[in-house]
## 1
Amino acid sequence: MNLKLLNKMELDQRIKSLVGKERELLHEILLTIKEIDQRKLYLEFGFANLFLYLVDGVGYSAGSAQRRIDAARLLNEVPSLGEKIQSGEVKLHQVSLIQKAARDIYKTTHKKVTAEEKKEILEQITSKNFQESQKEIASFFDLPVVEVTTQTVQADESVRLSLTISKELAEKIQQAQALLSHALSSNDIVDYITYVTDRVIKQKTSVKNRAEEGDASSTNNVYEPKITATVEVKPFSPRTKKILINKDQCCQYKDPMTGRQCRSRWFLQTDHKQSRWAHGISTIENAQLLCAQHNRLKYRQEAGLKYISR
Ligand SMILES: [Zn+2]
């Protein structure tokens, strides 16, 4: 179609009709994301979570992916959101405001915002703009206005961080800085963060040799031959995990279809490649790092096999 041939009114009608279709398509996309989320299919595709799948696997920007996840999950709790998205009465960024408020409330009070509460606030912000929705949500949940943490990568690849912390956390940091004053070169917060970060990395990755560690199994070896059965039941030692973190650094799960590897560095666990129920033993050769999500997926996938083999 040659748009140049359309008059003013026709172009106005055309854009409105296209936007209507766009909203219908968005609704379809949200329903699809909801289904993928509920079946946790992103795990099988080799992603540690739905967000990474939508960004790295589907091609959304981080913000677009998060807004769609927020909406797909709210759609699950409050199905009437579907009509409001299709009619355009509620926009994705308003939905994200509700979901973010619910997450913040859970983080600070461990109280879950109910589906009924979400439905109620959704009605209140219907057809409102962003600022009005922000105010409605803050007063509905009685939330303070919190400045968000911003993180900007600068030209020299250093990162500029701006964050707001509670009075309690500020006091704790000051106390910790005072306790470490013998080790820190100044009372600059960056010195403190550097010191603590280095200590955590060293503690979690440095592998001592066996004699130094006083490992019980090495002493056993001196007095008696290793019995296979005891190796089988013995779980992996923290030493094994440190060796793996030094070697592999990330989740080793691969989608068998595409070969895509998860590579998440969060919540890493030591897994038996050949599972213990299948007589896999606790040796370093049989050990691999999996993120908690993929460890659980592997367990679920093998659960069926396990019962068949018995
Ligand atoms: Zn993983």
## 2
Amino acid sequence: MKVLISGAGIAGLTTAYWLEKYGFKPTIVERAPTLLTGGYKIDVRGSALGVLRRMGIYDTVVVASTHMKGALLIDRKGKVINEMSGDAFGHRVDDDVEIIRGILCQILMDQIPDVELIFGDSIQEISSSSNGIQVKFQNNQPREFDLVIGADGIHSNVRRIAFGNEKKFLQELGLYLSVFTVPNYLNLDRVEMQYSELGRVAAVWSARGEPNMKACFGFTAPPAEVDLNDQAQQEQLIRKTYEDIGWEVPRLLQMMPNSTDFYFDAATQVHMDHWFSSRIVLVGDAAYCASPMSGQGTSLALIGAYVLAGELAAAKGDYQTAFEKYELELRPFVLINQKLGITAAKIMRSKEKNNFLTLLFQQLMRVAPGCLIKLIIDLSTRRIKKAANSIILKNYKG
Ligand SMILES: Cc1cc2nc3c(=O)[nH]c(=O)nc-3n(C[C@H](O)[C@H](O)[C@H](O)COP(=O)(O)OP(=O)(O)OC[C@H]3O[C@@H](n4cnc5c(N)ncnc54)[C@H](O)[C@@H]3O)c2cc1C
């Protein structure tokens, strides 16, 4: 069966690997001119490690991982109020691993040398019939496929074409996230520093092998407070939100306009009643994004790809049965992990409520901020561990 996958991210590359292994003929079309390398660091946890192991790349990922040494929790003047190991700070336990997103993509791409990859193009139109699918591309000639898989991220092109306007499926969590690269003037070596309070986090880190460092701002604001297509407005919102924070924040904000990779988005989840329609199916963020707040997006992409390809192999071409089983198998795991994102957002947004717990939290933050933040991180690690292990991988045979 000829399968077109839109998107060469974690979900798309992993789906292609497993489909090829099971005897399908996958082709990937990626909008970017080359594989998107670099980017932020991401975690792979729990059951998703089983996918890496079954692909034989777990050790390679560990060698290429960030090897973060530690984290310093600081107050708004820059005084260190607590220290944690890199793993404890990143909610990683047991064999969990942290790696730069682009490095993981490169490792995944290295596993599929024989898969056709079309860079610099995008699907324009899809027409399904009982015999197959005709796909029109923006640049290349139209082609026939048996199935189309949308693995093209939170603002999925395939989802828009097959299921309609994304507004129906996106659920904003009331938080914004910005990440951009700045020179490593603090000489951080595999260390992160974070200022946290309810509703506002500011952090810097330098991962292994990165000459620069990343600045990251995560904060609550009412949805639609900012135009997601207007960088000047976004920068202004960040400046306004952090104007009273000392530490390195004023300097980072000064550097912000000079950064060449300014990223800004609303923390958003994708909720759909079904992830498939006829011969088209979605996987990864395109289908069920849990938001960066969950810390589980990459693991969900890896496991979703494994299950989708596995069910297609098990159904021996009966794609309707495969898609139904894929959804049945994966949905409980997705829901548990999406809940992580919602819980994390609720904690950040609890500042908006003037209740007893918030007041108590604020009081404790005055007395022992370092211990309190560490406690919150530890509690959250327990929740994430449980969710990350809440699926048992089936053994699929091609
Ligand atoms: C700032 C930030 C921090 C994060 N931190 C974490 C973390 O700590 N842990 C974690 O697990 N996850 C984290 N995530 C989330 C994680 O990166 C995603 O959930 C995960 O990468 C999902 O993979 P994906 O393949 O579904 O989508 P993506 O990685 O978004 O890949 C989609 C691919 O599709 C391509 N594409 C888009 N449109 C088209 C088109 N029209 N045609 C063809 N191709 C197209 C894109 O170029 C991209 O290559 C974070 C995300 C962000 C933004």
